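fold-stage: in
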Amino acid sequence: MSVESITPLIIEYRYWILVPLSIVEGPIVAFVAGTLAATGYFNIYALGVFFFVRDMVMDALYYALGHFGGRTILAQRLLHRIGIRQNHLEEVRTLWERRPGVTMFLGKLSYGIASSFIVVAGMVRMPLGKFFGWGALAAVAQYGVLLLLGYFFGNTLGGGAVIVFERAQYVLAAIGLVAAIYYIGSRYARKRLMSETHHHG
């Protein structure tokens, strides 16, 4: 989805539209919502809670899929996306056990394959306390930074939402820059995580 189509939806429906949009494009939606929070459209603390809960729920669902439905077609497709076969799971378990923090952070930042690594965590039965502990830290770091970047950017524009739209080109340019940086960082995280996985595999 484009930023041009996301922003009007957020303005019109506020918190309700964040649920479906954040599932599709969580990071970009967090930045846009953070920008609008500076204009008074959202409460920045409520957004923080929302994105934290959203991330924890998504993690729990993907973990459950791996734990209880590891042999389903959906789970196998997600594994195939990151090049892991059933006989590699023991090696990947070692990666989660030895470096859970690094694996979680790199996995979360790996755009397009994050869900696959969460499914694997469920399949290798990563302890729930450790899984949700590192997941919570990763969620706070990732969405905290994106929300604050958006909020501070919205503050630099000054005024209300009308000003934000009058200066839409600046908003879009900033979102494009954040998206590009996020994408580049994500590509790096993905590449490193894949090499770690296949090194252990």
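fold-stage: in (second)
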Amino acid sequence: MKTKFITAAILFSGLFFNAQQISVGEYARTAKFNKIIDEINNGKTVLKYSDIQGNPFYKNGFSNARVGDTGTTLPVRYNIFKDTFEVLNENDIYAIPKDNSFSKFVFVSSNEKFILEKDNEGFAGYFLVLTEGKNKLLKKFAVKFNPEVPAPNTMIPGTPAKFETLKPVYFIKSEDKIIKLTKKSDELINALPSDKKDAVKDFIKSNKIKMTEELDLIKLVNFLNK
């Protein structure tokens, strides 16, 4: 993917905000943004996103989102494949750097909140917050790029390049750690503090909680927060 570095102050000099807002240039004057072109290398060729089957984005198009804890709103989109938030400035698209200045995005229309966190393997990325409280249920999206496979001969068709949406992974973020959830409830119970184990085990059993069902996980984390 082609990139171009540019300072935030220059990048957003053309953006206009309400009087209550601050410019991102002022908000992150020393940050650097990557200029994005929606292309990806596919062997010896370069493909535009529009020529690839599937969708690498959380939502099509750009939507206004509040940035951080300020009142600033920007037209952004979440690129799941690159795990970056991208901002539209006139006809140019820029990747917003993953740092503490841009650690939270809340979409205005849906109130969906994404936060920058590290998983239990130390990978920093964006997670959708499904529940609030001292324990947060986080949802991690992922998209895989499958390169084009040319036809080996005229009798066998090739395979077009495709963005493949993978199953999301869920985490519980407490005040001191993050727990990756699996379909085995025992793995969660073993990771909990000793004073929580029995109560959570009983709750899972009595409420027939399935660790693969998002609504059940929301119920479980809400119970943890009581």
